[in-house]
Fold this protein.
Amino acid sequence: MADGSTSIIIIKVTRLNGKSFTVNALYIEAIESLPDTTITFTTGKKIVVREKEEEITQAIIQFYRAVNVLGFRHDVEG
């Protein structure tokens, strides 16, 4: 999902018609399964994509970790 070869901000997704394109992770406000995966942007625009909600969520998490908004995962030993 995250395209590290160009910019980690960009997430590659696929429309239901099979055409791929990229979106900017910073502008994603919500992701829903309705049952198709629908991405809502901060502008209010919505797109429906083939990727699962979890795939997109993981790509966004990778982005935020790359820019140090989220800390690195630490395993807690108990």
Observations:
- Helices lie at 53-66.
- The longest strand covers residues 28-33.
- The beta strands are 10-14, 20-24, 28-33, 37-41, 46-49.
